Amino acid sequence: MTQAPRVPARAEYLRPRHQVANVATLLATHAGLASWCAFAFLSFPWWGAILLSVLPCLIHQRAMSEWIHEASHYNLLRDPGRNDTVGNVLAAFAFLTTIQTYRSSHLPHHARQDFFVPEDGDTGMHVIATRREFRRGLVRDALGINALETYTRIRDRRARGTVGGRERLETLVPLVVIVGGLLATGNLGVLVAYYGTLGAVYPVMNRLRSYGQHVTLCEGGGAIVAGSKTSRTIEGGILDRLLVTSSLLLFHYEHHAHPNLPYRALSSLCAREESANRYARRRLPILRGLYRALPESQPG
Fold this sequence. Notes:
Blueprint: H1 16-43, H2 46-52, H3 54-72, H4 80-90, H5 99-111, H6 131-142, H7 145-159, H8 165-185, H9 189-200, H10 202-214, E1 216-217, E2 223-224, E3 233-234, H11 238-243, H12 252-257, E4 279-280, H13 284-293
Parallel strand pairs: 3-4
Antiparallel strand pairs: 1-2
Helix pairs in contact: 1-2, 1-3, 2-9, 3-4, 3-5, 3-9, 4-8
């Protein structure tokens, strides 16, 4: 019988060197996008620079979403207060939110035994029952409709007093600095590229990420979306890790089993044994299996 791997202590993967590496990676990610935008907007017409910046912006947003997620579990820095402050200043500002706001909707996701239900803040928007609804959801994502609805919910949550003035200030300051710098250099097209991508491209990626992580595939070709109890790790190839889920979030089965652990601890817990609803090497077969299992439309 194969012995189960030892579950490490959280502190083993939040030593000073890990915390420094987390912050350094965040700063390097920002520097990478800033360098690209400086090159693109100096080298191409504004419309060309915007189009060519969609992919770099999406990569940056994928990274920021994962660091926001890591910080929501207090795994960016070991000290909770510093964790939230650094998470707001270096990551959450990009999504016009705060770590505290995201945490208030994300942690209940871990308390659930079922996904793709309206009560789940992480997957509730992605409920589908037919191929037509799948396609309609992607169109709404690409048109920015779902991003607007998500932002409205975030705004309403703030209005209910779940976020204090300090947290809002921590996300406002970097935004003011960035917008001021872009105004001074005449490069407001960067904001168009970034928030256009965040509104119309990132939601498509996030939907596909959500289905890969939580849809249940049944023997015989069926699938369960609403009420699914699956959390799945997808190893992914280079493009998948670049655009959809990097090592920060790909060990999703292990993350749901041990949500308190930093992402570095999860790889050692992964059995890497092919299983339709626990571990997969690629995302596309999961999405293809889901789409084929869905009926074209509801009967009647």
